[in-house]
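We emphasize that the prediction below concerns an isolated chain of 286 residues; any contacts that depend on oligomerization or on bound cofactors are therefore not represented. The input was used exactly as deposited, without trimming of termini.
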Amino acid sequence: MSIIKAILQAIGQAIAWVIPISESGHSAVFHDFSARYTNACSQLTGVIHIGIAIGIIVAFYKLFLQLGKTFFTEWADLFRNRRIELKETSPRRSFMYMTLLSFLPMILYAVPAGKYGNLYSVFHRMSYNGNVLGEGLCMALLGALLFIVSTMLNKKFNPLPKWAQALIIGIIAFLAVPTAGCSVVGGVFCIGFLVGLSDKYALRYSMVVSVMVLLVTGIIEICVGVTTVTFLQVIFALIFSVAVTFLAVKVFVYIVNKNFLKYIAVYDISVGLICFVVGIFQIMVK
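Result of the prediction step, given as a token string:
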């Protein structure tokens, strides 16, 4: 039974993370209706998050190989005391600089927050409060954002400066990570497009940012998880999360290329509104 649970959880998390229907939102709703009002995480969740990161890397292996090569070349240039030019640089280095800059706001999660531990814990615990109103609102907003982008995919507009694009995207990712109902992939993709990135660039950008987030959160969840996992659970969770993520990435790329985002938007808005209404009733009953 524990292995079946690991497989089903891996499949669900992988699909809901890559296809922007909010993994955190579905997780919070499940916790709420199963009366598990806690923000405590499990080691299995951390293992699956790492598996999702690996699946994304496999799906975009050429991109990550290029980024890895660029990163180590950059360090080599630093050790050779060469000047690093930020304004006139290659597209690969520009992409690397932007993703690193977008990841910087995540450092704020380590800021101490008294009895709550740190800032991440403050945000995260708000999503497990016995009420799905907040999750519903966030999912509905995510769907609205996806719908807006779906109507604008064929349009072009003047992009913001790259540093501004990176910071805005970083702030969106910072808010999306701990907030149930949000989606890192959906938020980064949509906002990236709206600040001037092409749809293909924004999609790849969302995947790279996701990998960084998934690896860090996955390691933390494994270290602090309140429930442990067996060796077989780890193996099956990794296999299925990697495989399903790889397929989900291909599906999402197809959805973007064919501009089927509105169907995901309808799903997010529908589920979000249902949760919003249920949340209102939960407040009234209490």
